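Subgroup meeting minutes
Present: P.N., E.W., G.H.
Scribe: E.W.

1. P.N. recapped why we're keeping a running log of single-chain structure predictions: easier to compare across weeks, and new members can see raw inputs and outputs side by side.
2. G.H. added today's entry (336 aa).
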Amino acid sequence: MKFIDEALITVSAGSGGRGCVSFRREKYIPRGGPDGGDGGDGGDVIVRTTVRRRTLYSFRFKRIFNAPDGGHGQGRQKTGRKGEDLVIDVPPGTEITNAETGELVCDCVSDGQAHIIAKGGMGGRGNRRFATSTNRAPRYAQPGTPGESFTLKLELKLLADVGIIGFPNAGKSTLLSHISSARPKIADYPFTTLSPVLGVIQRGRGEPFVAADIPGLIEGAHTGAGLGVRFLRHVERTGVLLHVIDGSSIDPEAPLEPYHTINRELAGFSPLLAQKPQIIAINKMDLPEAVRLAARFEEAAGSIQIHKISAATGAGISGLLDALENRINKEKDHDG
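Output recorded in log:
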């Protein structure tokens, strides 16, 4: 199934029902007073966060959502029924903004969270509400007010413990397929991964953690080059970044350039991204050329801790996972 991470929808809450103009008509009561009931309120549009949804895929097929109107008031002081609320389910990590103003409407993070995103209109008052000592037989009632209507933009930001970042073809997909049950598409050309892939990593009896293979970034990504802005959005909510570098493509004259380029893109998109904790892994250490070039990288990096791995053979991955797990636990303890 294709991963859909953006959607544009129109929501309209129900309008309130109109009040009723009615007079009491009973035998032996020739001058019965007004008894018109109020209209019912329109239904609200509510967005609810649920872990049963993982993508925004369903919004490809349904983009317009209307809550029912309230019922009209009736004689004998009968109030119209309230319109039913319309509930729209979205996956955790969905950010909803007003498409016209850009204003944040709600941030859907926790399972079961619910927000009213369009309020139903109020029912109109019936004529009995307007009876006074000087006007005992009012022949008018209020119409209901319209419900709120908005065009909303939904953006899904992946909620993962680890975001795997790096240039295209650095071996991120191969690494994720080795350490989890995820099976991303793997091939020897850039942009094999066109949408983020999640993998659950279970180690022994410890708490599993989730890693996201973020599609490869390129220089200029934060300004929209390639598919950069769409990709960078998914990195925002990951706790720890795993920065994978292709050891075989390191420039011996400027070994740290790939590392600095990616970090410039993160900072260009959001200063907070550049401050996220990073673990660096130099991949493809099964290649002799990568071994030689990784030494140049280590020399230039100084005190920065580096993990040398081969996603193809599994060499060094156990130690890398230990470091990831420890850092994730440290971040969660800090947040808690």
